Amino acid sequence: MADSLQPTPAANAGPVEQFDAIIIGAGISGLYQLIRLRELGLAVRVYETGSGVGGTWYWNRYPGARFDSESYTYGYSFSEELLQEWDWKEHFSGQPENERYLNYVADKFDLRRDIQFNANVAAATYDKKGNYWEVRLTDGARSRARFLITAVGILSAQNIPAFAGIESFKGESFHTSRWPKERIDFTDKRVGVIGTGATAVQLITEIAKEVGHLTVFQRTANYCAPLRNGPIDPETQARIKASYPEIFKRTRETFAGFIHDFDPRSLFEVSPEERQARFEELWAQPGFSKWLGNFRDIMSNKEANEIFGEFVRQKIRERVKDPVVAEKLVPKDHRFGTKRVPLESGYYEQFNRDNVLLVDLRQSPIERITPKGVKTSDAEYELDIIIYATGFDAVTGPLTRIDIRGEGGQSLKDKWADGPSTYLGIQSAGFPNLITLVGPHNGATFCNMPRCIEQNVEWATDCIRYMREQGFERIAASEQAEKAWTEHVNELAAGTLLSETASWFFGANIEGKKRTVLMYLGGAKAYRTKCDEVAAKGYEGFVLE
Ligand SMILES: Cc1cc2nc3c(=O)[nH]c(=O)nc-3n(C[C@H](O)[C@H](O)[C@H](O)COP(=O)(O)OP(=O)(O)OC[C@H]3O[C@@H](n4cnc5c(N)ncnc54)[C@H](O)[C@@H]3O)c2cc1C
Question: b/e string for 218-237 if b means 16 or more Cβ within 10 A?
Fold first, then answer.
């Protein structure tokens, strides 16, 4: 089970290709950045590890993979023609359709001619004298460009915990984000899934009915909420297409770029009856309404959070027949919404099936992987297939896995060893002309991502246009601006309910990773306003030369 983002040594001593800009990654961010830079007349090369476009929607082809964002709020908004041409088939569209969509975009805008697939960037080094970045691929090929733009995503560096004996397993094993293109036949197989986060919840629901036997290894019980997906009928399709301007106006206004936004009322302003009725109403609605459309103090006040948390726990208990299993599935070690809320379509009912077993790793942790399966502290589970739904080295991982070296040979990984320090999550001081789309501390990290990705890309494009118009060739975040932004990001996180919880938002899922906030928690709108102000003041906080 190779991690294809890990460099393997090889040599390719061909000529050094020259571009104006190099983009790493051909997901939503990289594709849109390519479109915009082409419009500026730049010679651009995109490098992509995968063999196709789509990023997240190329890699995550596990059964059940789908949007938690409403499909029509997720697609690109920049092209009216594209909006009118594309028919989303479901309110929360699945991976195959999402990948088709991104291929459609790549074809429509003729993007492939500037993308090199199966091209993993192993290293990037800044040359101060020549003011260029030299990029080296895993196969040794090199190229240079004035601007280096990372579009590597926040959830692309797979994480498999270092279980003892992992290589000894005689059956098949997969990580959900490196799922094979061929269909896997689970019939009569004994399958184990390690992990119960958002991905596992989708996967387990989909495969439980197909496998011979399923063992779910759970470390953390999550607060899963109903997705309430459904097909989009022609009438609704027409209505959606006619209301795109209003949809995108709304997503620009809300806290996290979704159509849902917090209720401005406090939970304590309404009577217990009214509150209960509102909870039921939210529960019946699709998507993240229960999280991001809830009373405003759910995410800031412990008592308010506890009241809704208990509502969700009760919902779980009602759905699981065996009370012992139900209690294992009820979260008790963190508050609602302080980890990414998994959305589900029948997850809890899977635990009422005779062929599904829940193993609580808090009671009996995994000791090792054996040739036959998984050994916990109290039993060995024999398996034909192990699925690692163990997530990602989120946000910083995709960047620190590349050997990025800025001025004076400084390594980005070393600089961020105690947590990232950035200006706007777009640059790090000492790394001139390196633009990190959706980087750590960037507003796009806690967002309905394409909405914030478009903002990131447009900001970066405007910045490069401005530099060219003004005759600047180098942009670098100042140390002071970086310090102030990093402090601001940390202050926003300090004291929040989110900061009390061990989650990937804070790097807590990775052993040895410094626990510090990776996201910007001030909201997409506040972030956009700040970025606009910085640009309006001639890129305040950046040194332009
Ligand atoms: C299962 C899953 C479901 C999700 N659902 C939602 C959702 O419903 N709503 C939402 O807003 N967000 C969702 N996300 C987040 C999702 O990642 C973003 O929505 C979006 O796809 C990010 O696009 P991107 O282009 O920034 O990054 P990605 O899609 O991650 O693309 C990054 C690309 O960079 C490439 N790359 C990385 N490193 C290198 C390298 N060294 N060399 C070459 N190429 C490299 C990768 O191969 C990848 O193709 C989901 C994520 C996952 C994993």
Answer: bbbbbbbbbbbbeebeeeee
Tokens standing for residue 41: 């007349």
Contacts of 329 (CB under 8 A, 6+ apart): 218, 221, 316, 320, 348, 351, 358
CA pair distance 72, 83, nearest whole angstrom: 9
Mean pLDDT of the residues in the chain: 95
Q: What's the pLDDT tens digit per position in 96-138?
A: 999 999 999 999 999 999 999 999 999 999 999 999 999 999 9
Pick from 112, 121, 127: nearest CA to 22? 121
For 398-448, give the DSSP string. HHHTSEEE-GGG-BHHHHTTTS---BTTTB-TT-TTEEETT-TT-GGGGS-
pLDDT at 11: 57
Q: Is 104 helix (H, G, I), strand (E, B) or coil?
A: helix
How much distance in Å is there from the Cα of 53 to the middle of ligand 1? 11
Tokens of 373: 């399966």
pLDDT confidence bin for 234, thresholds 50/70/90:
very high
pLDDT exceeds 60 at position 6: no
Pocket test for ligand 1, best of 36, 57, 152 (most atoms within 8 A of CB): 152
- Separation between Cα atoms, residue 470 and residue 513, nearest integer Å: 41
Distance (Å, rounded) from C-alpha 434 to C-alpha 407? 11
User: What average pLDDT does the segment 427-439 reach?
Assistant: 98
Q: What is the mean pLDDT of residues 361-366?
A: 97
The rounded distance, in Å, linking the Cα atoms of 529 and 535 is 10
For residue 534, pLDDT over 90 is answered with yes
Which ligand 1 atom sits closest to the C-alpha of 449? 11
What is the predicted pLDDT for the residue at 438? 97
Confidence of residue 4 (pLDDT cuts 50, 70, 90): very low
Where does ligand 1 bind, in terms of residues with CB under 6 Å?
5, 24-30, 47-50, 55-56, 58, 60, 65, 67-69, 74, 120-121, 151-153, 155-156, 199, 398, 402, 438, 448-449, 453
Ligand 1 centroid distance, CA of 29 (Å) = 8
User: Quick one: average pLDDT of 347-357?
Assistant: 98
Cα(16) to centroid(ligand 1), Å: 28
pLDDT, one tens digit per residue, over 511-526 is 889 999 999 999 999 9
For residue 437, give the nearest of 98, 79, 63, 21 by alpha carbon: 21
One-letter amino acid for residue 396 of the chain: T
Which residues lie across from 23 on neighbouring strands? 46, 149
Ligand 1, atom 22, lies closest to the CA of 153
Nearest CA, atom 47, ligand 1: 49
